[in-house]
Amino acid sequence: MFQLRIHGRGGQGVVTAAELVSVAAFIEGRHAQAFPSFGSERTGAPVVAFCRIDDKEIRVREPIAEPDALILQDPTLLHQVDVFGGLGPDGYILINSARSFEELGLGDFADRFRRDRLRTVPATDLAREHLGRPIPNAVLVGGFAALSGLISLESVAAAIRAKFAAKLGDNRAQLDEAVGINSVERFLGDQAIEQGWTMQAAAPPSGKRVLVVGAGPSGLSAAYHLTRLGHDVTIHEAGPMAGGMMRFGIPKYRLPREVLDAEVERILAMGVRLELDTKVTNIEQSLREGGFDAAFLAVGAHISKRAYIPAGESGHILDALSVLRSMEGQERPMLGRRVVVYGGGNTAMDVARTARRLGAEEAIVVYRRTRERMPAHDFEVEEAEQEGVMMRWLSTIKQANEGKLVIEKMELDQTGFPQPTGELEELEADSVVLALGQDTDLSLLEGIAGIDVEEGVVEVGPNMMTGHEGIFAGGDMVPDERTVTVGIGHGKKAARHIDGWLRGKPYEPRPKPEVVTFDMLNTWYYADAPRTVQPQLDPIRRQGTFDEVVHGLDESNALFEARRCLSCGNCFSCDNCYGVCPDNAVLKLAGTASANVNGYAIDLDYCKGCGMCVSECPCGAITMEPEDI
To answer: For the segment 112-144, what is each residue's pLDDT rounded down to a tens digit?
Structure first.
């Protein structure tokens, strides 16, 4: 087994680097594992990610104490943490720096290792030059592949394409513009509510009962899928309403409450029981008293992180979640005419935009890095700027007094980490809202044997189960991105594994199909079709109202957008292969006139291997395989 440990800071893509290595190994047919250990991921705190690669199934999951290789994304950590702990003399070391080991003060240290296994690479500079963003993870993974020979550069490239396919905009983006998958899915969701579509259980009742803790996106998702799988589900929610962070952390102009309520009702209509104002204080006790066979924990991150800011007695400092949560009540928060939001994530954008709607003449986001390093989604930043929200890049708050803040300018070092400059200036503000991330209340796990909590998150296995048999966890509680999309995915994944555990047959995910890249398509057959733009509320009309900003597509536009899909790797029965084969070796199967991946067969007695069918297939659904003789 080969073990890799990666050190960096929050926001530098350490976890993604480990995932890329593991995906590259998986592409080559090996077993791989990648997982992080972090707490304050977005604050620049030290982050460690681990990766294991083996030719047989990997059953161990604890952090790696004795690695075979190390990748250091941030050289400033050399003086803060024991980066090289446990590394043997034959280990590989790759450091993100333009300086040599000697220039980094590691000359004597390097003499204890094999020099041919030690490298430095200016990954941040290379990423900034070639990618336009100072995010070094992909460069370092390529450097690691070249240094160690453990994985090939071709597999790394394929892993990057697979990992960032959505971010790069899928294959259609290289033809004209990416398919608006989210807008099509939203249309279907809107139709489901409007038309009253219902979902039935896909399996007969199992007789098993499952407790879901938390009615946020992950808990609701798990409840839905567990019910579909035939299990009896009860949700215990500590708050007065369902929705979790979708209700108390996402403003109404992004997610109208009537839509959220309708979605929750659709899940409850399937037979899911929801018990509000029911806080679970001890999960073992709740399981025992309720007669449940398993539990899925999906407690949201509702505790705001704080930062020490010296403030006078009159300094008005609030936290972002309190501001957003108060919007669900009768009394709206009093923020004043000039509001400063400290942070750079989506929550910071939400609070700043909310402040503008509450009447603030100025809403200013203070962030200590640059726009390129901001964790907030690009569209969130763009919409905030459209609404008059101002940004103060490379800045941090040193002190808060009545009506004024002291701001210190920052500058990025060679690793992209902000450093103070000592240059101060004043900024007028009636209130300061801290949007620095959130933590999860894990008190329900105190004293529970087998459950490991590392830096505020619960360790789970690949099957989403904790170290305690029958207790699973997901969403904000586990080490991963804290987004609605990821939380919903955790709920679905956990439901499948809970179902397998309850039935005594471990769930085995279906093999993923090969990723079809743009070069495998024949784009001559596709016409240009610009992306359908979702209508938006005019920026002027957004001020003073919480009406939804981004609207959905109508039926004709949704159908048009869906037809822009290139169907990469999926046969849609265009008959090209059937028509171009010079030897009539392609046979059309009976009764498959509609789109069907099994609509054709190759008569190998007549096929000469000319490859015409492959080259003329629009969607890359046909591959040439060497013949075994």
So the answer is: 899 899 999 998 888 877 766 667 888 999 999
Would you say the CATH fold of 305-437 matches that of 198-302+439-503?
A: yes
Whole-prediction pTM value? 0.74
Instruction: Provide the residue ranges of all domains of the chain, joining segments of one domain with +.
Output: 2-163, 198-302+439-503, 305-437, 569-629
DSSP code for 303: E
387 against 128, higher pLDDT = 387
Cα–Cα distance for residue pair 611/617, rounded to 1 Å: 10
* Exposure class string for 465-478: b at 16+ Cβ within 10 A, else e: bbebebbbbbbbbb
How far is CA 570 from its chain centroid?
26
If 0-12 CB within 10 Å is exposed, 13-18 middle and 19+ buried, where does residue 220 land? Answer: buried
- What pLDDT band is residue 593 in, cutting at 50, 70 and 90? very low
Q: How confident is the model at residue 43 (pLDDT cuts 50, 70, 90)?
A: very low
| Backbone φ/ψ region at 196: left (φ over 0), alpha (ψ -120 to 50), beta | left
Q: Any idea what DSSP says for residue 493?
A: H
Return the ∠ at Cα 456 (arms to 451 and 457), rounded to 5°: 55
CATH 2.60.40.10 fits 305-437, yes or no: no
pLDDT surpasses 60 at 213: yes
Top-tier CATH class for 569-629: alpha beta
Tokens of 121: 């690479």
- Given a contact cutoff of 8 angstroms between Cβ atoms, the answer to whether 35 and 44 are in contact is no
Tell me which CATH code domain 198-302+439-503 carries. 3.50.50.60
Q: Which helix (H) or strand (E) holds 395?
A: strand 395-401
Classify residue 598 by its DSSP letter: T
CA distances from 511 to 253, 261, 431 (A): 39, 36, 53
| 2-163 belongs to CATH 3.40.920.10 | yes
